[in-house]
Amino acid sequence: MISSFLPKAFAPLYQIDPAFAKSAVYFSMEYAIDQSFKIYSGGLGFLAGSHMRSAAAMRQNFCGIGIFWTCGYYNQTRGEDREMAVQFRRKHPAFLRDTGIEFSIRIYEHDVRIRALYLPGDVFHTVPMFFLTTDVEGNGPFARNITQRLYDHDHGVRIAQYMVLGLGGARLLEELGVEPDVYHLNEAHGLSAAFRYFQQTKSKAAVKSKFVFTTHTPEEAGNEKTDIHLLERAGFFSDVALDDVREITGIQDDTFNHSLAALRLARKANGVSKLHGEVSRDMWKDYSDICPIDHVTNAQHKKYWTDLGLEAARIHGDLDALQNRKRELKERLFRTVADQAGKLFDPDVLTLVWARRFAGYKRADLITRERQLFRDLLANTEMPIQIIWAGKPYPFDYSAIDTFNEMVKLTMPYPNATVLVGYELDLSAQLKCGSDVWLNNPVVTREASGTSGMAAAMNASVNFSTWDGWICEFGKNGENSFIAPPVAPDLSPEARDHQDLINLYRILQDSILPLYYSKNHDWWKLVLQSMNDVTAFFDANRMVREYYEKMYATSTEVAAPWFSWSIGLRKSNNGDFMLKAQLFDFIHLQKQGAPRFYRNHRDACIEASLYRLCPDHGNVKTHILPWFGYFYHGHRFAAPQLSTAANASVRPLKSLHR
Predict the structure, then answer these.
(1) Which of 430, 425, 442, 526 lies closest to 481 in space, CA to CA?
(2) DSSP 455
(3) What is the full DSSP assignment across 125-139?
(4) What are phi and psi of 578, to 5 degrees?
(5) CB–CB of 325/360 below 8 Å?
(6) Exposed (0-12), middle (13-18) or buried (19+): which is 86, by Cβ within 10 Å?
(7) Could you give the dihedral angle defined by the CA atoms of residues 151, 157, 158 and 164, in that order, rounded to the nearest 10 degrees?
(8) Cα angle value 145/148/152 (rounded, 5°)
(9) What is the pLDDT of residues 448-470, one digit of tens each?
(10) What distance lies between CA 365 and its chain's CA centroid?
(11) What pLDDT, in 10s, does the model give residues 510-542?
């Protein structure tokens, strides 16, 4: 039996799957775990929350480290004229437990006390998780303020927040008396942990052997940069001399690029979609000494996000049940619309939703920029439409807030268009379940993944998107989604936006609305196809398995397979030797659609002919492992570990022929 690397008091209740025995710790600034735990801002947190749930479902030797944001991100409410208002309110979640662990780190030449809180995995069906806070007795006002607000607008405070996550997270592991095999940085926010590890080991190679890095930023200008002397004064480098910092990061000027440093200190990095991996490799190709950049496409935890009624209809291929349940969920969403906006939406009308963080490149207002087209769309009584916007701008991004407020004013006169506030987990689920079409129109290559559309598709909402992020691995225009064609890359931003707008209207008016109203049976066939296609690959269980296989396994070890093997040899009639691989605990693979040569759900075996073993080379591992690999749904998996019996040296060929 494989034990958790965590002390018993904090270990998960599940038994670790041997395929995921390697211990890993995930550092993230935000996690969207439950509506009652508001410590997230948007997509990064939604991804991290799904990762924690699926890591538990797959029984991984894993834990998460984050920060308990006392005031969360912010509460999004309305002012007197229905404009967006920002409220910061202290949170007091009773489900967080005090670990009794406190320690200090130096921030801006002051000792800052950090307390570690614990979220047991059985509370929200996650892996064990730890949340750090500086809001403790003995800290001064500045120190207590560090963990008040997620992504504080003061740059100096934000540096301190990164230090609490990275340096504080590393110190927590020391207090727990554990050293994981893998430190996984979800974005570069926790990078200071790498400098703490370097301080202890005095070895860049040791750091690189432990750290992996997930980047979510698809353009170099979007990666955070800080004056290196400010970071030194803050203590970001954990007492590592500045000359050593420059040597190990390769940064010789005074601008410290956090992502570049992470790419030079990590063993491996990944983008969060296939396209994003390509964009990232191209973006960093001119920089020396960076680690390999792969990709692990984001996903969402299907069990958490999917409505059970819709899922039952999908499994049975029942289009009538699918349509009826979708209507019920639309009615539920429309009660929220009525409560917030005083507008009564019709569940028999096609409903389009744009819901995500308000940011310039995401272009929330794109379809409204041609006012006459927008008015005509909303006035169409033959093929009516209802449109909902929702999302939380960064609370100090005044341009994004202006866009939000302009959308509120613009939609106010229309009974079939509105903007909702409070875009958090619960409202997000309502919108995904209650929408017919999920609109996503970022500037192409600016959206690293855009995972919200995955959970929408799981809930019978059809993706309507520009060709960016995860959609490039999913979208089949007119079959499971509707895709706006890429525009010429040499267009000006204004011309590009106009062309994308025209393409969206053309698809909406010529394809989506006619299909919904005139070929209703075909619409629901497309919906069902979308649900089946998203289920096959975009469940986070696949994602967390890929992190172990593609990111956590080193080049000198065999990646953990999905299952357990026992391997042996036998002689065939022609004198060759056969590899016999016995497969155990296979039931979960069968549910994923395993290859037909497996015999049953409890065990299976395959045999493959090998070349004749030379008498001078008798080690099974030498001969089998370089050869053995198999392909499953297009993914190559590394050779399984040999059992103890099979790992012994093979006797010379002459003896084996007896």
Answers:
(1) 526
(2) H
(3) T---EEEEE--STT-
(4) -105, 140
(5) no
(6) middle
(7) -100
(8) 90
(9) 999 999 999 999 999 999 999 99
(10) 26
(11) 999 999 999 999 999 999 999 999 998 999 999
